[in-house]
Amino acid sequence: MIIVLKPHTSKEDKDKILDKIHSLGLKTMVSEGVERSIIGVIGEEDIVRMQPLEAYHGVESVIPVLAPYKLVSREFKPTNSIIKIKDQEIGSEKISIMAGPCAIENYDSLRAIAKVVKQKGATILRGGAFKPRTSPYSFQGLGEEGLKIMKQVCDEFGLLSITEIMDPRDMHLMHKYVDIIQIGARNMQNFNLLKEVGKSKIPVLLKRGMMSTINEFLMSAEYILSEGNFNVILCERGIRTFETYTRNTLDINAVPVIKKLSHLPIIVDPSHATGKWELVIPASLASIAAGADGLIIEVHTNPEIAASDGSQTLNPENFEKLVKAVRAIANVVGRKL
Ligand code: PEP
Ligand code: MN
Known about the structure:
- The structure is a single chain.
- This protein has 2 domains: 2-63, Alpha-Beta Plaits (2-Layer Sandwich), CATH 3.30.70.1140; 83-332, TIM Barrel (Alpha-Beta Barrel).
- It has 11 helices and 14 strands.
- The chain has helices at 11-23, 45-49, 107-120, 144-157, 171-177, 191-198, 214-226, 254-261, 270-274, 280-289, 316-332; strands at 2-5, 27-32, 37-42, 59-63, 83-85, 88-90, 96-100, 124-126, 160-164, 180-183, 204-207, 232-236, 266-268, 294-298.
- An 8-stranded parallel β-barrel has the order 7-8-9-10-11-12-13-14, surrounded by 6 helices.
- α3 packs parallel to α4 (144-157) and α3 runs parallel beside α11.
- The longest helix has 17 residues, at 316-332.
- The protein starts with a strand and ends in a 5-residue tail after the last helix.
- Manganese (II) ion binds next to loops.
- Manganese (II) ion binds at residues 102, 272, 298, 308-309.
């Protein structure tokens, strides 16, 4: 349920309403708009429905949110959320490009990749230090050593960093070394992990589970927001279908659907969505045309020797082509790069 306040409601009136809701044992989240505030009520709505909240001074309307997610919904926050990270914004007019290897391999290789992706237009460096591999015998990532390399390289090139967290016990490492944490497809419904990242304010990129509906995806985002962290960026990375030609099927519909249902930014990962480097450029163009706020792309100076996901990884030349083509599409849809 959301409570829309009249424009310029006094703090005193707002506090009275909040106190009333809290006295019923429910939590609130307030979205402060330019004109008016909206109070999101979290918990058993039936308790609130019995109260004559419209009678309170300052209340314009009380609207039940039919969707099971509340804080994530556009009803709660009609304007697009812009996630501010240092000097960058995700979800604004500007398209964000995150690029880098699937896994951090060593200092020299990450530095070489960072240099090239920065030069060609990326502003955020991706790279996994904790890798969720299907086989326990595959390279699992460098762990903390990888995060140290990531920080050193990002500091040198003025890039933000993004890396995956798999275990809530690693949160302190994330705070120490990285700017954005990624929750991977396999952990989209790891509710303890979602709650833990929700307790901090660190920006989170939440990837859609490979077998999750849009509704389930938004419910997972709700877990993070309901703990108080509104710095959430969604990521469509392809879902499993009967098609086997590609690694996953990019659900392009998810982009405009999520834009309609939620205020959170949504980006696309065409690398995991397709699994094939030749498809990464067309999938990226379709994503930006559909309204995505950014892209996360696997890039390596030498994809043939990448420790993981080489077959879906772009070399620098193709990454440059991608950025140029994305810039052209961005202009068409009224965005910038
Ligand atoms: C990745 O970004 O390298 C990754 C493992 O992605 P996903 O969780 O989408 O499979
Ligand atoms: Mn990968």
